[in-house]
Amino acid sequence: MKNTMKLGAIALIAGLILPLSGCIIVDADVQADDWARGTGGGLLYGAEVAVRGPGEVAIVAHSNGCTEKGDFRADVNSEGSNSWRVRFERVKEDNCKALVPEGKRMVWSFQELGVPAGARVVVANRVGR
Q: What pLDDT shows up at residue 42?
């Protein structure tokens, strides 16, 4: 009887622990240093500029599950001759705890950035992982 109870207790504990073992919690400050350094506005996972039509700039940034477009400020500077430099700066931390390894993709139109259609645009942030 005692062995049956021990095995039952072990099975119950394993049944409770094993499903939780797949849960991953990410520290919300994983890349806070990259943003705080002020080097290029922070590390982005990716960036692309589409000049067809009205034009748009898309970035992929680190996210803990709650990152939104409004969490970033775009610093836009004209470099003359229809050329513009855009640097994205995170102004609000993402303190959620989800695992989002692909990051969050966000898009700004040239109009939102104050850049004329057809302009040459360079994203000044560092890109990598």
A: 79
What lies within 8 Å, CB to CB, of 95 at 6+ separation is: 28, 64, 66
Which is it for strands 43-44 and 46-50: parallel, antiparallel or unpaired?
unpaired
The domain ranges of the chain are 25-127
DSSP string, 11-65: HHHHHHHHHHTT-----TTTTHHHHHT-STTSEESEEEEE-STT-EEEEEEEESS
- Nearest residue to 31 via CA among 100, 106, 124: 100
Contacts of 61 (CB under 8 A, 6+ apart): 42, 44, 45, 67, 72, 88, 90, 103, 104, 106
What averages of pLDDT result for each successive group of 10 residues across the chain (129 residues)? Answer: 50 42 29 42 90 92 96 96 95 94 97 95 92
The pTM of the full predicted model, rounded to 2 decimals, is 0.68
